[in-house]
Amino acid sequence: MVMALLKVYVNSLNGIEAFARFLKSEFSDENIKFWLACEEFRKIDNKGEIESRAKWIYDTYVSRKAKTEINLDSKTRSHIRKRMESIDNNIFDQGQKCIKELMATDSYPRFIKSSKYRSLLA
Fold this sequence. Notes:
- The structure is a single chain.
- Helix 1 (about 1-10) crosses helix 6 (about 95-110), helix 2 (about 15-25) runs antiparallel to helix 3 and helix 3 (about 30-40) crosses helix 6 (about 95-110).
- It contains 7 helices and no strands.
- The chain is an all-alpha fold.
- InterPro entries: RGS (IPR016137), RGS_sf (IPR036305), RGS_subdomain_2 (IPR044926).
């Protein structure tokens, strides 16, 4: 149920912006930024751009050295690291799924109880 609500909500520009502001206030906006970067990454069709963008996403969000490291389990992080040797548009799918589930079960329920959400509905 929460996953379905999150899916509907992030398909709305106002919804994404409000949710991103909420996540920023909780110091976890790297999650929505990673999720959005993956959505855009999937649309790229130029091999050179795919490789450079994948490296940027990895260095920015997935790497243990990233300043905006997302919370991935070690199995998923390792899977992505290995796939960096042979990059395609689906390289981040598993990580994106984990982050979406995290947002749906952790951040989003708090968001819909927040004043930021209520003010959006007003």
